[in-house]
């Protein structure tokens, strides 16, 4: 066997150092996590805190929500109506163009 060149030795040292570095970083992270766990004892979750003890929505809020839903529903209905009208227009245009094309074919042939 031949003796490794200095370049091969350097590459091996770099590989070993990168593996060692990753292992050392993991060890340090584990130690820091253990320190944090010891310093902060587990505390119970905070009690539920409502805003001023309110119990639900008022009549005005429900009225506003209902109006918003109605306006949104009308908008969606108008959108679908516009799509239907444009579809019918395209169908009529296709029939008219087909009729014109057939008339031109009869006159030409």
What's the arrangement of secondary structure elements?
Elements: H1 6-39, H2 59-108
How would you sum up this structure, described in words?
- It is a single chain.
- The chain is mainly alpha-helical and 109 residues long.
- The chain folds into two domains: 1-41; 60-109.
- It is 77% helix and 0% strand.
- The protein is built from two helices and no strands.
- It has helices at 6-39, 59-108.
- 0% of the residues are buried.
- The mean pLDDT is 81.
Shape label? flat
Structural class: mainly alpha
Q: How many domains comprise the coordinates?
A: 2
Largest sheet: none
Number of helices: 2
Query: Strand share of the residues?
Result: under 5%
Low-confidence stretches: none
Q: From the structure provided, what is the oligomeric state, counting identical versus distinct chains?
A: single chain
What does the average pLDDT come to? 81
Give the proportion of residues in helices: over 70%
Order of helices and strands: HH
Q: Between the first and last Cα atoms, what is the distance in angstroms? A: 91 Å
The whole-angstrom Rg is 38 Å
Beta strands, count: 0
Structure at a glance:
This protein is mainly α and 109 residues long.
What labels describe this entry?
mainly alpha
């Amino acid at each position: 066997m031949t003796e490794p060149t200095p370049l091969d030795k350097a590459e091996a040292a770099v590989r070993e150092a990168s593996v060692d570095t990753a292992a050392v970083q993991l060890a340090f992270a584990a130690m820091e996590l253990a320190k944090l766990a010891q310093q902060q004892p587990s505390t119970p979750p905070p009690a539920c805190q409502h805003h001023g003890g309110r119990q639900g929505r008022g009549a005005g809020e429900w009225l506003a929500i209902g109006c918003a839903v109605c306006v949104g529903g009308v908008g969606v209905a108008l959108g679908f109506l516009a799509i239907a009208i444009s579809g019918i227009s395209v169908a009529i245009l296709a029939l008219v163009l087909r009729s014109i094309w057939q008339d031109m074919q009869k006159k030409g042939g």
